[in-house]
Amino acid sequence: MREIWNDITSALFLFYKYVTRGSKGTLILTIIVATLAFLEINIISGILSSAIDQVYLQTKASYVSNIVIQPGKDQWGNNEQYIKQVSQVKRRIESIPGIIAASSRYSCGAVIEYDPDKTGRETRSVSWPVESINPDEERRVSDIHIHLVAGEYLANADRDRIILGREISGGYGANLELQSLKGARVGDEIKVYYVNGIVRKYIIKGIYSTGFPLADMSIFVTENEMESVLNIHDRASKILIKTDESYPEEYYISMLRQAGLNTQDINPWISFIGIVIGLTQTFGIIKNILLLIGLMVSGVTIFIVIFIATTARKKQIGIMKAVGMKDEIVILSYVMLAFFYALLGICLGIILLELVFKPYFAANPLIFPIGKVPLTTNPAELILSIVSMLIVSLIAGFIPSWRIARQNIIKAIWG
Predict the structure, then answer these.
(1) Which of 105, 115, 144, 366 has most Cβ atoms within 10 angstroms of its Cβ?
(2) Mean pLDDT lowest for which of 199-208, 248-257, 339-348, 361-370?
(3) Is residue 161 helix, strand or coil?
C-alpha cells in the first residue's frame, strides 16, 4: 500500500512540473478546445432536447391535452359517429382521481369562405373541419385562450362568432400562408359551408397563435352553435382529458376502462403527433452524432498534446527510467495531465453554459417551426457528457504515454 502511495505522489509531482513548467500557450489552447467541445455537445444537445420537449409540451397544452376519447364501435362492429350521453361520460371521467378536467368537442367538415372587400373578386377559401368547444370547459384542458394575438376568446352564449388559428387566418407569422385565408382579421365576416348543407355567417371574434402548427390549424365555434348546425345534443366527436400527470397516460386509460368506458376509442396524446414523431427521432439521432463528434474532437486534441509532450520529453523519460522510475509512474503522470485538461475544460464550459448561454437563449429563444425553443439542459445528459469527456481524456492520455514509457531505455535516451 505504501509503495502504491509513493507511486501516486511521484506521478503527482511530475504532473505538477508539467503544468508549471510546460508551455502556457499549449495549456490554454488545449483547455479552450476542451471547453468548446463540451459546449458544442451540450448547447446543441440542449437545444434539440428543448425542441423535443416543446413539441410534447405544446401537444398536451394546446392541441389534444393528455388523453383523447373518440367514438368506438357499435354492437355490430360499425364505427360510431359520436360519443353518446356525453354529460354522463364526463361525470364518470372527472370522478377518477388525478383527472383535472374533461372537455367535449364536435367536429364537422366545412369550407370556409372569406371575401375581404365583399365584391367577390378576391374570395379566399379553405376546406377544413370546424370544431366546437364549451369555452368554460376548454379553459381547463387547453391554453388556447391565453394565446390570442387579436380579439377575444369565445363565450358560451356566442352563436355568430368564431375564432381561428393563425394558420387558418393567415398573417401573424403563419407558416402555411398560401393555404390560409391570407389575412382575415378580427371583425371580418366569413361564411362557412358545412358538409350537411347548412351555411352560416360568422364574425371573427379572435385569432390565436400558440406557435405550434398542429394547434394553430383549428377553427372553433361554440358547442351551442354546433349543436344547432348538426341538430343533435349531448354528443361529441371527441373528449379531451387533462390529467395531473402523477402517473403515465396508460394508467389513466386503464382507470377509464374500469369506469365503464369500454366501447370508446381511448388514446394518449402521443398517438396524435405522428406527423412530427419522425422529426423528434431525427433530433435524437443528431444529438448522438454531435456527442460523438464532440468527444472525438476533445479526445484527439488531448491525444495530440500528450503525444507531442511525451515525444519532446523522450530523452528525459529515458533518463528517469534509467535511475529506477517505473513505467506506471510516467504513464500515470500523463494520464493526470490529460484528465486535468478535460476537467478544466468541463468546469469552464459549465460556467459559460449556466452564466452566459442559458440566460441568453432564455431571453432570445430560437424560432423553430414548432415554436420558440430556449436552451435547457437535461441533468442526465449533462452528467453523461462530463463522464464521457473524462473517460475519453484518460484514454487519450494513456495511449501516447504508454507508447513512450514502454520504449527501450537506451533508445529513449539516444532519441
Answers:
(1) 144
(2) 361-370
(3) strand
CB atoms within 10 A of CB 244: 11
pLDDT digits (tens, 9 = 90+) for 62-91: 999 999 999 987 767 678 899 999 999 999
Number of residues written out for the chain: 415
Residue carrying C-alpha cell 442526465: 380
In 3D space, the residue among 170, 161, 186 whose CA is nearest the CA of residue 124 turns out to be 170
Contact assessment for residue 143 and residue 64, using Cβ atoms and an 8 Å cutoff: no
325 compared with 170, residue with greater pLDDT: 170
Q: In terms of DSSP H, where are the helices of 314-378? A: 314-322, 327-352, 358-363
Whether the Cβ atoms of residue 17 and residue 317 lie closer than 8 Å to each other: no
Q: Which residues contact 303 (CB under 8 A, 6 or more apart)?
A: 396, 397, 399, 400
**Conformation bin of residue 169: beta by default, left when phi > 0, alpha when psi is -120 to 50:** alpha
Per-residue model confidence (pLDDT) at position 319 = 65
The whole-number pLDDT of residue 318 equals 65
Q: Give Cβ neighbours of residue 305 (< 8 Å, ≥ 6 apart).
A: 26, 30, 338, 341
8 or 128: which leads in pLDDT: 128
Cell of 314: 523522450
Q: What pLDDT is stored for residue 169 in this prediction?
A: 93
Angle at 173 between CA 170 and CA 177, to 5 degrees: 40
Quote the percentage of the chain above a pLDDT of 70. 90
176 CB-near residues (< 8 Å, 6+ apart): 167, 213, 217
The residue to which cell 478546445 is assigned: 33
- What type of residue sits at position 57? L
**CA–CA dist 235, 213 (Å, integer):** 28
Distance CA 288, CA 294 (A): 10
Nearest to 241 by CA among 252, 233, 251: 252
Average pLDDT over residues 230-255: 95
In 3-state terms, what secondary structure has residue 156? coil
pLDDT of residue 411: 56
